[in-house]
Amino acid sequence: MSDNSYGKLFRVTTWGESHGPSIGCVVDGVPPKLALTEADLQIYLDQRKPGQNRFTTQRQEPDQVMIMSGVFEGLTTGTPISLIIENKDHRSKDYGDIKDKFRPGHADFTYTAKYGIRDYRGGGRSSARETAMRVAAGGIARKILGDEIKITGALVQIGDKKINPENWDDAEISKNPFWCPDAEMAAQWETYLDKIRKAGSSIGAVIEIRASGVAAGLGAPIYGKLDGDLAAAMMSINAVKGVEIGAGFSSAELTGEQNADEIRMQDGKPHFTSNHAGGILGGISSGQDIVVRFAVKPTSSILTLRQTIDTSGNETEILTKGRHDPCVGIRAVPIGEAMMACVLADHIMRHRAQCG
Question: What is this structure's pTM?
């Protein structure tokens, strides 16, 4: 299968399937002499791993990462870094009843149309299980970014229930199972999602990722736009159906006067009075916070009978058993952070290569 790599100078290639023996990735282009251990990556993988509360899939995977190459005596060597995670809790029997049926909302039909074969066990390559390796790669990317750049992800909407932006508190994000910065909305989501979960259904969500401390000048004005690469990175995450930068689609409701991020001088430095552009102008970072939001559709695997066809073209019905997230957007927060880190690391290296 092609297109398993992303990035130009900081380049990540992932491999593996949901129910295979393991998943892994190769990260190439990492500068030498960066301090790196498995523990540096594990802290992020522990945030993404399943089975941590009743609102995520109960598949029990420790997601213990092993560094196979590219590190010697705790330092990167400049050679490809290979990472691997063993799959411990895959239950392929849960999918035996649907191996000849196409699950609505999944990639079953399109994979078969493209390749003429598919791994029906948990979706195979199309499973969100692959994203564990993105999170691991993101941990390496953060080593390149350093402490100056801070990446913060949060869930800002589940279904039609949105947070109050005035209640945003970074300290609240880690205090609830939803990565929610609004304590009042987190309490409402708990009751709301319990009803969704007990009904065997699912619901969509919106995630916001912010990066602060990013210097002005990253990106290129035409085919290497920073916002274009960020949008592509977020769109590549499983179940994502929409991406916006800054004000995004809301900017269509603004006048030119309202949308313009006016610039003044403050303490001898340029200061923007607003950030509708999401920290990117003309494809190049402005020095403001970079703000990206993406929408995740409801989990397609639900316990409600749905109409479909089988591999022979016969009309039939299907319901999906197994262990699934009632809101897959919850575990997408650390994945979105990782993709932000990988894109920024790649663009920092590209900028240094051209501009020094």
Answer: 0.93
